[in-house]
């Protein structure tokens, strides 16, 4: 009964080995990375770019500049979102909106990497590769999974328009807080400061909170099982990353306000 009601909101899972395999891989990988962040084993970018070095001194690490690393993360996924407009033309409203949302999401990240973010560290290639593959393959899988729904009846409950609202709230909120972060440093400054403005007084990672909202908006637009699995997996990862980030601020700044949560206001 519960599953029947659940699938009123979604298309039935496609009989595709590729989509099924990617569903399992995406969820397990993202959840595992989230748990690893909580345990102190970080993906090496942003303020954690030099973490775990004491564990990897015997291995030669390939370092990228942060800007190059960020562009590596997001450009393939941006292209994967844009190219299907030519591969799958006339797919219908839902597919067009989904492709547009994913393309816009990663275009914004490329734009921020080029013109908004201010960098102080590097990025380790071994961390950049799995993140790049995650964004690229999830984009391909979401769009292909949507293509497989083309001849199926629509879900009984249409979530496209609430999804557009959620997506816009997420992408605008994420951009705004990235902009606030970029304004913390003056010209030539590289040190970290306690973020202020927006929702930073409530959670230390409001940009992550809005990214989570963004991907649930994508799920509402898509209404496929894979898009839901990816949104849940992303939630697990960003919960872990935000928890680690809050602990980092607590260890670095004696005056960091203890009432500020990691990513969910007043809760976590």
UniProtKB/TrEMBL annotation:
Gene3D superfamilies, per database record: 1.20.120.1630
One term of GO molecular function: oxidoreductase activity, acting on the CH-CH group of donors
Compartments, record wording: Membrane
UniProt entry keywords in alphabetical sequence: Membrane, Transmembrane, Transmembrane helix
Stretches that traverse the bilayer: 15-35, 68-87, 123-144, 159-181, 216-239
PANTHER family named in the record: 3-OXO-5-ALPHA-STEROID 4-DEHYDROGENASE, 3-OXO-5-ALPHA-STEROID 4-DEHYDROGENASE FAMILY PROTEIN
Origin superkingdom: Eukaryota
InterPro entries linked: 3-oxo-5_a-steroid_4-DH_C, SRD5A/TECR
This protein's GO CC annotations: membrane
Gene Ontology terms describing biological process: lipid metabolic process
Taxon lineage: Eukaryota, Viridiplantae, Streptophyta, Embryophyta, Tracheophyta
UniProt-recorded name of the protein: 3-oxo-5-alpha-steroid 4-dehydrogenase C-terminal domain-containing protein
Coiled-coil residues: none
Family note: Belongs to the steroid 5-alpha reductase family.
